[in-house]
Amino acid sequence: MTTRPMRTALALATFLCARSVGAQGVGTTVATLAVAGRSNENVSIAASGQFVAVAWSASTSNATDVFTATSRDGGSSFSTPVRVNATPGDARVGGELPPRVALVTRKAGVPDVVVVWTTKGTAGTRLLVARSTDGARTFGANTVVPGGEGAGNRGWESIAVDSTGRVFVLWLDHRETVMPASMHKHEPAVGAVGAAAQAPKPDPVEKAGKSQLYFSALDGSSARGIARGVCYCCKTSLAAAGTNVYAVWRHVFAGNQRDIGFTISRDGGRTFSDVVRVSDDHWQFDGCPENGPAVAIGRDGRAQVVWPTPVDGKEGSPLGLYHAMSRDGRTFTARTRVPSRGAANHAQVTSAADGSFIVAWDELTDGTRRVALARGQVDAVGKATFTPMHTPEGGPGLYPALATTTAGTVVAWVRRTDAGSTIGVARVR
Q1: 429 vs 426: CA distance, rounded Å
Q2: 0.85 cut: is pTM over it?
Q3: Domain spanning 14-178+205-428: which CATH class is it, in words?
Q4: Is residue 413 a contact partner of residue 397, using CB atoms and an 8 Å limit?
């Protein structure tokens, strides 16, 4: 087991007070996670029982590392941050591709903490994984996720654990978009004119067909592509319930429409269904919006999916936040808009113990991005209604992440101020 000790320059997870208001709201305290002297961004969170793990990146001007801190009291207090990556400064992460954390529950003791992140490889980017068996006090060797290394870019990953403790990783992979050196065209001769001197503009749908959705288990199983035609840089979302595995991502459908795709495996990840279109939003966009979907599975087995898309389907229009639900993994309810005060981005969702689900996102209001929350409930006919919830702070915040404990839901987010950026964590009551 490799240890990455902290020095005194690293900030301890501190506990601050911030009063919340309203009947539906967030706990009265906010914990702050940070590595002193660094920009703290790109957060993800996982929970099992009262155990909570938060992973994020901490960067200087020329280096980025992945850190993890844990709580054993449902998110009220946290341990000292511990560096996960063995090679200092080598992480390559971002808002839509943060380090991802998952917990593997054990019969005795604390859960194993598994972290996946991206870094630079020999021919492109690669996905690394590290595991802790002592509550994130130390982490083992960094290894490549099966199938997570090759030519071209990959990432925008998500992670899930099924009821047997198997850990799965989903990501976008662009290995087939890399042109072999022998196929590179030479520059046109000086004075060349006409069509011969101009490369044709690639068809967006054909171009997206070379990008794949990759899936792998961390038990030695071989990785494979499970869908083609994915949007290039929107985050994926993966969930597991029992031995079923659910995946959502932004897909490039015919006509260059960038809507949400869904697939389900009912045999522990061995096979997946054909791609299902969650909602026909008609968003025709020649580029990547960098705004992926999220999925959560309730105790009743229903898949709750949330995603941002323009309210009128037109490029350049403000983004609205939408929800749809599936009982069977083959069809979805008509989309319902989640109320927001401004353009909504970076949606997340988690199922609550009472059968409802919590949605989080960041929205632009008065020129500032702030984290927003809502509680969703679905009636007997599948219609969703949402109750806005007060946020833990009124200040700038973005890229929220959610997890559910036995004491309630916990939200983490990036807090940006003139003094720098830290990670905020609060319990949703």
Answers
A1: 9
A2: yes
A3: mainly beta
A4: yes
